[in-house]
């Protein structure tokens, strides 16, 4: 891309990202307002007056909207648009779709009351319960096993026998020798599902690159797998109340001393993007409590040796 067009696009990226954060300061709002003014001013120069639409003009009001009503995600319509995909599954055919949606909604609302009337006293009742749960599927992710507030283990876990070198790394992190080690591959962290690279099911994109911290250092890495380490001897019968420790096996992505953008005129920096090497460093084990958030991983064929990782601006919106 021509550098002039790239720098121009970055003005929009930085301003929208900043205005979508969980917390936006008055200084940030003022800076984003100036970035958007420059973006709109340069738009006519780069693309021509005929492309100056009403939507472009509305960008000039975003800073005021955030001042008056809060970050952009508070009144974003993307989440409502996402629910349209769920509504499409609630009707079949073009005849009276509104009645079909109403019937499906009534069924979902009343299903818990109906299920409560079935006692699990026979295999037939169990089959009825399973069928009702299936047809009233709410499209939400399973909670899994809660290991701390807003953190859940998803899917099954399996007993593993770590190699000597892996066990040494685990012991170094824990400070003791665990009696049993179990592996799992998915984690729900504050509503975001973080996979591991060893998760076998196909996924649409890289969802195992994370930001995490070790002491006071904020690092970036890719999760290879998750491990539950038990201090007791109960194994799979462990009720999760014993001294079990949950670790992530992470390959770190070393930072590169490079910046994506620094526009001296607008002071745009794209500071939410970090540049990392594609060469993974040595694996290490990190407590799951030290994982901060899922990162958005980007690599480009014309830049083969580095990748770009972006923070997510907030924990509410998702794609």
Q: Proportion of β residues?
A: 25-35%
> Helix fraction?
25-40%
Radius of gyration: 25 Å
Low-confidence stretches: none
Provide mean pLDDT, rounded: 84
What's the overall geometry?
flat
Please write the string of helix (H) and strand (E) elements: HHHHHHHEEEHEEEEEEEEEEE
Strands, count? 14
Helix/strand-derived class?
A: alpha+beta
How many helices? 8
Sheet of most strands:
7 strands, antiparallel
End-to-end separation in angstroms reads: 26 Å
Describe this structure in words.
This protein is of the alpha+beta class and 319 residues long. Helix content is 33%, strand content 25%. The chain has helices at 3-19, 26-47, 54-58, 62-69, 78-88, 97-115, 123-135, 164-174; strands at 145-148, 151-154, 158-160, 180-184, 186-189, 192-195, 209-214, 217-230, 244-252, 273-277, 283-287, 291-294, 296-300, 303-310. Strands 3, 4, 7, 8, 9, 11 and 12 form a seven-stranded antiparallel β-sheet that branches. Strand 13 (296-300) and strand 14 form a beta hairpin. Helix 2 runs antiparallel to helix 4 (62-69).
Quick structural gist:
This protein has helices at 3-19, 26-47, 54-58, 62-69, 78-88, 97-115, 123-135, 164-174; strands spanning 145-148, 151-154, 158-160, 180-184, 186-189, 192-195, 209-214, 217-230, 244-252, 273-277, 283-287, 291-294, 296-300, 303-310.
């Amino acid at each position: 891309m021509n550098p002039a067009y790239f720098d121009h696009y970055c003005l929009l990226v930085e301003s929208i990202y900043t205005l979508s954060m969980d917390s936006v300061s008055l200084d940030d709002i003022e800076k984003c307002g100036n970035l958007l003014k420059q973006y709109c001013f340069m738009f006519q120069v780069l693309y021509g007056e005929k492309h100056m639409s009403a939507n472009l003009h509305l960008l000039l009001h975003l800073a005021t909207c955030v001042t008056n009503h809060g970050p952009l995600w508070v009144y974003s319509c993307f989440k409502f648009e996402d629910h349209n995909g769920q509504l499409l599954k609630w009707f079949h055919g073009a005849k009276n779709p509104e009645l079909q949606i109403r019937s499906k909604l009534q069924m979902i609302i009343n299903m818990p009351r109906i299920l409560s009337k079935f006692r699990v006293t026979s295999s037939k009742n169990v089959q009825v319960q399973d069928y009702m749960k299936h047809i009233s599927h709410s499209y939400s992710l399973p909670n899994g096993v809660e290991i701390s507030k807003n953190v859940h283990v998803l899917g099954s876990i399996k007993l593993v026998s770590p190699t000597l070198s892996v066990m040494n790394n685990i012991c170094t992190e824990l400070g003791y020798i665990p009696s049993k080690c179990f592996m799992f591959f998915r984690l729900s962290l504050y509503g975001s599902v973080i996979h591991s690279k060893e998760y076998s099911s196909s996924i649409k994109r890289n969802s195992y690159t994370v930001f995490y911290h070790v002491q006071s250092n904020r690092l970036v890495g890719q999760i290879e797998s998750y491990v539950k380490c038990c201090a007791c001897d109960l194994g799979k019968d462990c009720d999760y109340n014993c001294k079990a420790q949950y670790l992530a096996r992470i390959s770190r992505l070393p930072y590169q001393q490079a910046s994506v953008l620094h526009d001296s005129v607008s002071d745009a920096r794209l500071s939410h993007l970090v540049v990392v090497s594609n060469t993974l460093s040595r694996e290490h084990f990190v407590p799951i409590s030290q994982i901060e958030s899922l990162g958005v991983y980007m690599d480009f064929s014309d830049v083969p040796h580095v990748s770009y990782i972006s923070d997510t601006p907030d924990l509410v919106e998702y794609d």
